[in-house]
Structures are given as C-alpha cells and as structure tokens.
Amino acid sequence: MCRKKPKPRQFFLFNDVLVYGNIVINKKKYNVQHILALEDVKIESVDDIGNLRNGFKLISPKKSFVVYAATAVEKQQWISHIKKCVTDLLNKRGVTQNSVDDSPVWIPDSSASKCMLCKRSQFNMINRRHHCRKCGLVVCNDCSSKRWLLPQQSSKPLRVCLTCYEKLSNAKSSGCIDLFSCE
Q1: Which residue in 33, 67, 140, 165 has the most C-beta neighbors within 10 A?
Q2: In which domain, by residue range, is 155 found?
Q3: pLDDT tens across 140-170, in order?
Q4: Same domain, 17 and 69
Q5: Per the domain annotation, does 2 fall within a domain?
Q6: Do 87 and 14 lie in a common domain?
Q7: Residue 37 belongs to a domain with what CATH number?
Q8: Coil, strand or helix at 180
Q9: Do 19 and 63 belong together in one domain?
Q10: How many C-beta atoms lie closer than 10 Å to residue 131's C-beta?
C-alpha cells in the first residue's frame, strides 16, 4: 500500500533479507529492487478494513509499510515465514533485535483532508500534503517546515512535523539517547 494507492510489488524472502520491487511486464525482469535486512524487520498483523484485507505491517529502521496478501492463508504464511527467518537469523548470529528507531508507516493521503497536526489547513492543489518522516502523519507545509537527520532513513536531514522536531530537539538538548524514555 503506497501513500496514494495500492501498487503491486513482488517479494522475495531469503534467510537474511527481504527483497521487493516493481515488475516489468514485457521482459519479465524485476526493477527498482529494495532490500530490507531481516535482522531489523518486525512484523504486525493489520485488521481488515472494508476492501483492504489480509494486511500486515513490515517495520524496519529504513522503511516501513503495509502489505496486503491475496488471501488470509497467504497472509499467515508470509507472517510465519518472515518471523521464522528473523528468529533463525538472530539465533544463528547470537544477537537480539536492535531497539533502533523504526521508520513509521505513512498515513495514506486519502485518510487526511486537512493537516493532522494543526487541524486547520485544508489540502488542495496549492496546499500540498507532506509526511513527517518520524511519525508518518500527514501535515501541511507550515507544520512540517523543520528538518532533522534520521540516519537510519537517510544521510540528509528529512522533513519532520513540529511535534517530532520539538521532541527530537528536547531529547538532544537533555542528552537523552532513547527519544521515548525521555518523555
């Protein structure tokens, strides 16, 4: 599920990575491939809502999103296989899963007709939607005018909402390492 609409993706599960990407129909090749290291992946089931059924969240520091399987059986198979691969990989390496900040699952554009922060700004052709890279909320330009370096997601500072910017700034100034234990 992309921020605007569902898009088909092909997934390949290996014992240490999950590879996903677009399908090129003509030549049967897969392009724009993305790789998620399984040692960082967490998975959560998503409740069915309307015609969006058989969903689960893939959560990682680099990217998080919701995936919808064709059937409930396929959903359960993906969840169990991914969990098994993650557990086997962590056991093999003798490590526990990192408690690194995970990337948020973005709220779909269609779920917000106005800014989710100020609740005043209506979205239209001129007033565009933006996503906070820290919490995933859909916000207006004024409520997302700040940027912050989120090294798990990018080497450049990314757009964050004013609430997240304030939390990040306060955590940094107080010397707090884990943002959520500072609150």
Answers
A1: 140
A2: 109-181
A3: 999 999 999 998 888 999 999 999 999 999 8
A4: yes
A5: no
A6: yes
A7: 2.30.29.30
A8: helix
A9: yes
A10: 22
CA dihedral 114→117→162→5, nearest 10 degrees, is -50
Q: pLDDT-derived band of residue 1, with 50, 70 and 90 as boundaries?
A: low
Per-residue model confidence (pLDDT) at position 180: 46
**Number of structural domains, the chain?**
2
What pLDDT, on a 0 to 100 scale, did the predictor assign at position 181? 46
Residue 113 tokens read as 């007709």
CA 9 → CA 6, 22, 60, 117, 183, distances in Å?
9, 5, 18, 31, 38
Closest residue by Cα to residue 106 from 80, 130, 71, 128: 130
SS3 of 34-98? EEEEHHHCEEEEECCECCECCEEEEECCCCEEEEECCCHHHHHHHHHHHHHHHHHHHHHHCCCCC
Residue 79 sits in the same domain as residue 154: no
Q: How far apart are CA 167 and CA 121, in angstroms?
A: 22
Structure tokens that stand for 134 in this block: 């820290």
DSSP state of 119: S
* Token output for 18: 């999950």
Question: Is the residue at 103 inside a domain?
Answer: no
Residue 29 amino acid letter: K
| pTM for the predicted model, two decimal places | 0.71
